[in-house]
Amino acid sequence: MARTKDAGSSPKPRKEPGRMKQMWQVFQMTRRYDSSAQWLMLLGFLLPILVSLGLALWLAGGNGFTIALWIVAGVLAGILIALVILGRRAERAAYSQIDGQPGAVGAVLRSGLRGGWVGNEMPVAVNGKTQDAVYRAVGRGGVVLISEGPRSRTTRMLEDEKRKINRVLPNVPVTLLSVGHEEGSVELHRLPATLRKKKRTLTKPEVLAVTNRLNSLQASLPIPKGIDPMKVRPQRGKMR
């Protein structure tokens, strides 16, 4: 008799899509939310080819092999530029989907920071009634407090958090930012670039020291795994 498969055998793991398929999915998502992305990518691809072709005709002196090398270099440069444009536009399209939702700033701080910046995914202050929140990022530009919600409601929250930081780190610059579409606010997709443009005032060791200092002040008492703090009951004293 032929052997049958065990009934309890685990199913095969789902195969991950290839790199080209992933890029195609990213392109489709980006084009859905940003119709100009495909035209910018096409321009970024064709422009280096045209430039390289012009240089080849000018500098190659009629040598076919040299002209072909120039054209290949232009194609490679065009592909690279098109991919860079796709990455930037895809990031902006992804941010547009979460813009205005609670926790959007935390998502950007978790995945969108570069240049040595360290951001907290969880807010350092939250208004339970309005869901307004304040997040914190630390980098070479100092400490940046970022509010999520209308400026009229979050200005006081930012000032309160700034005073707390100034008490423990009086020599560290603290910048206040508000994310939103109001005048004077920073749009969500521009937040990473805004942080990178901050003037550098701290060294890398100082950034680490400031981050550890602030995290230690924010840390709460540890709770054992598997225990819901809302359901913990005080232990009764043993009867003698």
UniProtKB/TrEMBL annotation:
UniProt entry tagged with the keyword Membrane: yes
Keyword Transferase: no
Positions in coiled-coil regions: none
Chain spans, region Disordered: 1-20, 221-240
Transmembrane segments: 39-61, 67-86
Keywords: Membrane, Transmembrane, Transmembrane helix
Xref: Pfam families: DUF4191
Official protein name in the record: DUF4191 domain-containing protein
Source species: Agromyces indicus
